[in-house]
Amino acid sequence: MSDIAELKLNGQSYTLPVVEGSEHEKAIDISALRSQTGWITLDDGYGNTGSCQSSITFIDGEKGILRYRGIPIEELAEHSSFIEVAHLIITGKLPTSAELRHFSDLLTQNEMLHEDMKFHFEGFPSHGHPMAILSAMINASSCYYPALLTTDIRNRFDLHAARLLSQVRTIAAFSYRKSQGLPIIYPRPEYKYAANFLHMMFSHPTRDVELNPEAVRALDLIFLLHADHEQNCSTATVRMVASSGANLFASAAAGVCALWGPLHGGANQAVIEMLEQIHRDGDDGSRFITQAKDKASGRKLMGFGHRIYRNYDPRARIIKQRCDELLAKLKKSDPLLDIAKHLEAAALRDPYFIERKLYPNVDFYSGIIMRALGIPVSMFTVMFAIGRMPGWIANYREVLEDPNRRIYRPRQIYTGPTQTTYAPIRERQ
Ligand code: ACO
Hints:
binds acetyl coenzyme *A, mainly alpha, 19 helices, about 425 residues, 3-stranded antiparallel sheet
């Protein structure tokens, strides 16, 4: 492969270095383009822009491949757990037994919020969206750890990472309890990560919820499948905020805000709302598909399409299979699963979706599992945020430890008025 790219501009030639990743993805390094030529590149939506070099996650969207630190998602889904995967993503290696025990202990020791945090929850209206509460409370937590604002974060990154990873789950469960007017349930040190979350969501002060091992396993899988996904909107946001030197909790809180949107993590909530609407309308999905193909309708087939995948999202394949197994084991049926399968089959043979290479993404079936676990729809995107926390932490760490770190600061092409004069108010029309 050539190690330079040539660019011709106004009759002059420039050479630009080429960068190749470990999976042979290629990029033209334009970091000196403006200083050499006075030009910048323009890439609306960043579809062709590599914003960093990262060693965390590899995706081949054409082939439908996803690997965390080199390990295929299918292998991790079958053999691993969310906490082991979190260790893999954050530290770069699968833990030994001793390392896993240490990491789990650190999570347990840091699962409690500062008791004063309870007063912050009081300030939110009961109908407040849990994503708003989650981002606000993650940011507020940083007030209790002044070391986050100092260089100590580098020395004790494992501790701060464990605090965030453990407490995001506590905050999420507390915000749900608050939204229901229910008393807060504290975490229990004897429970593992996903079980503890279900305990805090559904136990009563006088009676613990009975935890179904299948439900716990399914939730753990949901978290694992969401653990990282390279430079998506929320992770890129975390890196952007981190690049300014903002602390880990503030950067993660920004990630939660970016994730909330229905074109990103909010799609899992939008999918269920879409399926419920189809169900209420007595449609088998066919009418909805027709609308989704018509841009004027303002509708999209939620849970379909992806910026990177031009193939079946491997996470969707795993979740779809687990959906069937879980419902069978819990002896539940869900008419929304039948509608989802019908929609998928209809879309996958429709030329509109085939030509645009639109396939189910991770959000298409995840909501059906979460419904079966009793998670309310308004909490779906929160579940995504909990799962994505290892990826945000690992990406934050890459920015923090980059010896060549610069603040992220894109440029623009200005299209507003050229220089004009200030008109006094009486002369304005
Ligand atoms: N339903 C109908 N048409 C769609 C859909 C969809 N779900 N997704 C894309 N298209 C169409 C677009 O209108 C466009 O059509 P055109 O070529 O005639 O103009 C074409 O397919 C290409 O789509 P883009 O908009 O260029 O895709 P982009 O990469 O910008 O957006 C996105 C990707 C946001 C995921 C989009 O597919 C979408 O909105 N999907 C529904 C929301 C969703 O499920 N989001 C979750 C994504 S996964 C995640 O964030 C965890």
